[in-house]
Design a protein that fits this description.
The structure holds two protein chains of two kinds. Chain A is an alpha/beta fold. Chain A has helices spanning 18-23, 28-36, 39-49, 61-66, 94-100, 102-116, 130-145, 176-183, 212-216, 218-224, 226-231, 263-270, 304-309, 328-342, 348-351, 353-366, 372-383, 393-407, 409-418; strands spanning 79-84, 120-125, 161-166, 207-211, 240-246, 253-258, 280-284, 318-323. Chain B has helices spanning 4-15, 24-35, 40-50, 54-61, 83-87, 90-101, 143-151, and strands at 75-80, 114-119, 131-133, 136-138. Classes of the chains: A alpha/beta, B alpha+beta. The structure holds flavin mononucleotide and iron/sulfur cluster.
Chain lengths: 424, 154
């Protein structure tokens, strides 16, 4: 089984420096792209590979790049941004790649910037990722010295500056248009789309925002081709995926596996099954902003379309397991409190709805909830849903709420009628 | 008044951007690095350097959770209170630390040694529970480890 993204990552040891990375074939993809391919050819290769964005929404990367105007005035800047603001509760995959193999990301970013002819690139990094920050800065310096960054890269005439921007903390910074405002030194409020960032992004210039895992793929695809990439997945979607499991399982962790393995395989073979004395009740398959799946879904293949058909989302591919010793109301309450705190405050269903939801859940958990809260919670979940808000934050918050009510309804009722939490 | 050093560091950031206001978050972080927090006076001083209104600076300062608009202790403990850490028992860690230091979330100990704050997911969920003290990351925490850990922060 191939593990292209994590093959050279050994948890606990330090990441490969430039020399080690080159020894295992690093920067060969960059050389190939710069010497043998035009930017349009790189974009069309990535489009043909069907690489879907790994930041949560699964948008085709090549399609995003092809929206960037290429015939306009190239003298004005265009930007490439790596979204490394990982903050979705239960998500710990980008940290693994950032700490484990910074050169893989940097190489991918240089090729991607070349494809859209961006001369400035930023890594928008979660402030708390100090180890990743130090490793990235060292690797970037090495890349400058080796002539992979800076002016006239590998004699191609292409220039690229790469900066690390450490953020100041807010989940909403990860939303790509809010990220742009934050990079401009403003409050991280999302922007209206259209115009899409590919047309008008940072400082009003064409900008591509891609996730760490997405960009880490680019050098591999350039080197090995689209068919190789497609062949890595079980469902033809393309590639492997970093899958994670947290919660009361025997062996929580992160694994690179073919895209499309089942939840059961992930849970039982890789995470070692449930921890002793704990039973599986359900899981958020891809981070806090995805709908619960339960026992009957365990054979669902974890790729973008299949998880969606089962009523949830692949999201970030990092699963949070709910076990029978954890109160489902407390679980949902915890997640909704997070979303309430992290709302940017722009739209009413999110700014007003989420704190209301949070209060009702708190009171149900404490045993002071009323039956009518259940309908009010459903009402709010509906109004936070797609189409009623400016960005996907509120719809994301609605997902664990609506599915939690659906699958664990009896537990909610028991809290209300019994006037206490059965788990306390 | 900003010190010459602070001004110099801010100007260095300003230079890489199309206009000074872009450096607002950088400037807040620089001043906080030197003083521990952002006072009303610092807000005004930064506004002057960036040539924007102090209300604009404050709108940014109050938006981001890692900019402190109130004084904090010499060390800041950030306990992850997100869902994976909840399942793995952050609450008992919090209660232990809270009792030991005599402060709740948002509080600063009377000797100003520690401020205790909650923080959202730190991306280390397979090693929960997790917390940060200043810039140091700790995982797989148990109550037994806390006393010794805190001893390193004076
Ligand atoms: C509230 C919110 C938070 C987000 N946080 C992140 C994040 O931390 N990292 C990320 O890559 N994408 C995040 N996204 C998704 C981005 O908006 C965007 O779709 C993604 O960065 C695009 O990269 P990709 O096409 O490579 O997936 C978030 C979206 C929303 C609505
Ligand atoms: S949905 Fe929430 S986070 Fe998104 S723009 Fe509206 S208020 Fe802000």
């Amino acid at each position: 089984m191939e593990r292209p993204l994590t093959k050279y990552i050994t948890p606990g040891s330090i990441a490969y420096n430039l020399e080690d990375y080159k020894k295992v074939g690093g920067y060969a993809g960059l050389k190939k792209a710069m010497k043998n391919m035009t930017p349009a050819e790189v974009t069309s290769l990535v489009k043909g590979s069907n690489l879907l964005g790994r930041g949560g929404a699964g948008f085709p990367t090549g399609v995003k790049w092809s929206l960037v105007p290429m015939n306009g005035d190239d003298s004005k800047p265009k930007y490439l941004i790596c979204n490394a603001d990982e903050m979705e509760p239960g998500t710990f995959k980008d940290r693994y790649l950032l700490e484990g193999n910074p050169h893989q990301l940097i190489e991918g970013m240089i090729i991607s910037a070349y494809a859209i002819r961006a001369e400035k690139a930023y890594i928008f990094l979660r402030w708390a990722y100090k180890k990743a920050e130090a490793g990235l800065r060292t690797a970037i310096n090495e890349a400058y010295k080796a002539g992979y960054l800076g002016k006239n890269i590998l004699g191609s005439g292409f220039n690229l500056e790469l900066h690390v921007h450490s953020s100041a903390g807010r989940y909403i910074c990860g939303e790509e248009t809010a990220l742009l405002n934050s990079l401009e030194g403003k409050r991280a409020l999302p922007r209206t789309k259209p115009p899409f960032p590919a047309v008008s992004g940072l400082f009003g210039r064409p900008t591509v925002v891609n996730n760490v895992e997405t960009l880490s793929w680019i050098s591999h695809i350039v080197e090995n081709g689209a068919d190789w990439f497609k062949g890595l997945s079980l469902t033809g979607t393309g590639g492997t995926k970093l899958y994670g499991v947290s919660g009361k399982v025997k062996n929580p962790g992160i694994w690179e596996l073919p895209l499309g393995i089942t939840m059961r395989e992930l849970l039982e073979e890789h995470a070692g099954g449930m921890a002793t004395g704990h039973k599986f009740r359900g899981a958020l398959p891809g981070g806090a902003s995805t709908d619960f799946l339960i026992e009957e879904h365990l054979d669902v293949k974890m790729d973008f379309t299949t998880v969606a058909a089962a009523g949830s989302r692949l999201g970030t591919g990092t699963m949070i397991v709910l076990d029978d010793k954890t109160c489902p109301v407390a679980f949902v309450h915890n997640v909704e409190r997070f979303f309430a705190l992290e709302s940017c405050g722009w739209c009413t269903p999110c700014r007003e709805g989420l704190p209301w939801v949070e209060k009702m859940l708190a009171s149900i958990e404490e045993g002071t909830g009323k039956m009518e809260y259940l309908d009010l919670l459903k009402f709010n979940a509906k109004y936070m849903g797609p189409g009623n808000t400016f960005c996907a934050h509120a719809p994301g918050a609605a997902e664990p709420l609506q599915s939690g009510l659906k699958y664990f309804y009896d537990d909610f009722v028991e809290h209300i009628t019994g006037k206490k939490c059965p788990w306390k | 008044m900003l010190t010459e050093e602070e001004k110099k560091e801010i100007q260095k950031e300003v230079k890489q951007y199309p206009y000074p206001a872009v450096a607002c978050i950088d400037a807040l972080k620089i001043v906080q690095q030197h003083r521990g927090w952002i006072s009303d006076e610092s807000v005004k001083d930064i506004a002057q350097v960036l040539r924007i209104s102090s209300e604009e600076v404050d709108s940014v300062a109050t938006f981001y959770s890692r900019i402190y608009r109130k004084p904090v202790g010499r060390n800041v403990i950030l306990i992850c209170d997100s869902v994976s850490c909840m399942i793995m028992g952050y609450e008992s860690l919090y209660q232990y630390i809270s009792k030991k230091l005599g402060i709740s979330f948002g509080g600063t100990s009377s000797d100003r040694r520690f401020t205790l704050l909650p923080i959202s997911c730190l991306g280390d969920c397979d090693n929960a529970p997790v917390m940060i003290i200043n810039n140091d990351h700790f995982n797989r925490l148990t109550i037994e480890k806390i006393d010794e850990l805190l001893e390193h922060y004076k």
